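Sequence in, structure out. Go.
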Amino acid sequence: MTNEAFTREDLQGAMRAGILSPPQLEALSAYLDGLRQPSMSGIDAEELRFVRGFHDIFITIGLLTLLSGLFFLMGFSDTWALGFSAQAVVIWGLSEVFARRMRLALPSFVLSVLFLPATLLALVFGVAALMDARLPGSQSSWNGAMGAVEGLPLVLLTAAATAIAAVHYARFRVPVGVAVIAAGGMSCLVAILAAVDPLRVDNHLPWLGLAAGLAAFALAMRFDSRDLSRRTITSDKAFWLHFLAAPLLVHSTLMLMLSGLEGAGAGDILQALVMLSLVVVLALVAVLVDRRAILVSGLGYFGVAISMLLLSAEVSDTVGTSIALLVLGSFILLLGSAWVPVRRHLLAPFAGTRLMRHVPAAQ
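Output:
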């Protein structure tokens, strides 16, 4: 019998039947995964377990088609609150089938991601509908609904939607749910600050994004440190938190840096060099913690920076775009191909330090 004899769904079924405890499930899964000897280790390959076959994709197409039809059907309803409430209820019902009973990875992922926004929109438009007598038209548009619930009501509704999403995660245990809850928590914080001083939130949005990104990154590293071998769903939770943190960190940092440079009258060349420097730093961090999602969010800025340098050299738009794409593609391929040796050399000075308690060892 090989390690392919039992799928993870089989083991999870054994746990639900009381044959295995959750710790035994994780230990057995790690052991079976360890029997594989791939050309690249699972750690460095950064394997994702949110799709396991075309059956998952086929079911997901059906889910998205069904939910899209339900969304367009809402156009015939007099209130968006009823429509989004129906969306949230249907998503929960589908989760019972595809996430809890069938344990299909990709459908579970999609349903978990969609549940929080559907719930929040149902609550916002529901309260707006109750207030429609005082503010006519508040339930018929997004701006009208937000105007009806701004301030403390929006804080409470966002917190309630996040709490309901946490219940959804507690029942279905889909790894991406941790990132969804984290995003809900960030939204609650922004809603609280906006209720206190909306103008200050607008003026300090990049700083808020940076703080949120750092918090998500710290939480992701906490999960990563609990599964350095990257063999359990704890690693999947960390991946989605990194996926959430990366764009917040990259975009907020660049907004702060570029706004400062523009205020100082810096030219395009200096701004492009700053972008490239940030991408280099992101690449080092990504290789160090062995998470490519951190770097992916900065690749677009890498291409923009190359284009800015070429335009400063009076290269035509068509040629500049072509060269930028060639350089960007070459950078991705070279770093991806040399990821393991580069990481080995980068981690060498940190051998035996506390850092190695939080990142996977070099292969």
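Check: The chain has a mean pLDDT of 84. The longest helix spans residues 233-263.
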